[in-house]
Fold this sequence. Notes:
This protein is 67% helix and 4% strand. By secondary structure, the protein is mostly helical. The longest helix has 43 residues.
Amino acid sequence: MDISPSKKQCAPKKRVKIHPNTVTVKYSSHYPQPGDEGYDDSPSSEDHGLFVDETPGKKLLSDGKGQARTFFGTMDARSKPPEEPKDNGVSQQLQSFADSSIFNSKMTWVALFGAAMAHGCVALITRLAADRSKVPSLELLFIRSVIQVLSIVVVYYYQEPPFGPEGYRLRLFFYGVCNVISITCAYTSFAIVPPSNGTIMWRATTTVFSAVLAFLLIDERLAYTDIATVVSSVFGLCLVMIPNIVDEDNSLLGFWKEAFGYSMTVMAGLTAALAMIIYRAIKEKVSMWTALFTFGWTGTVWGASTMFILQEPIIPLDGETWGYLIGICICSTVAFLGVYYALNKFHPALVSTVQHLEIVVAMILQLLVLRMIPSVYDVIGGSIIIFSVFLLAGYKLYWVGRGRRQDYEEILDSPIK
């Protein structure tokens, strides 16, 4: 039986159709040759529609209006309106963060000035307690430390370990020892040299040593503007102190006695600066309340073990003496908290420089309470201190705050947040 060629089953063959817009390739089991029945060399609209239906880019192929053709395919030539950047509240968050940063900076300066005023009050009350009530310096340290031990309540309230977290306890203990040695050396020097000179030397050496030790131990540097204000303030301290030293006893015995007294103030300044550097290094793990408790319990132990040996303590009975003691405890605690709150933000040398205002506050209080008129050198030196400290504060609050505000504004104006 004859089998026509159109009905023969052939091996699978490939059929290619070229359309104006596309090239399709179809596989079929039978491909009619020219002259066979069913051969059609015209493009099939049905096949073309089938291709369009099966092609993922049907929308692009069917919508030729407003489209452009490229080497890789088609693209929409119509310009799309630019999408507005999504804020999602980032601008408000950045603005809130900027305002919070500036507010915290202002609060830090308020704490520093408050600490300087409290230190000035401590200097006056300590002198009154020593002159009128004859309370020894180590007994003052002991009573002050016992009151400060009560800060354990705040430490437990914030659920902090009272002796510091593991790995930081030795450094925290060393911090407490340095603070106690500093206070002891300072109070001892006040019995040898005039308390005003001893306080000035203590503050000046604390500032200098804190700048040097911060650079050597924790690699914190001062800006050139900060260095200028620190040097100016220390010069003001020297201008107040040097004339008083020149007017003192010039005998050989008096010279060595004063040399020992001022050596004690230098040691007080060195250990005070070292304590500030230690706290600056561990401030992320130890709060100022834990530091206050550490200072309290180390001072209590040291005062109880030495005041009966080195001095002759008294038992205060009158209300005036207890008023002095309570005033010293309150003012010293406020000053401590203000200083160590600022240490979380500022360089130790800057914190110590602002505390030079203690000398000016003490001068004013002595003039008002004790009727002690300051000398010309005291007035000039105090004026230099005030000018230096307020220049430093103005620079930090205005220029540095302005720079931060500009940085935040640049971030807010940036399309990428």
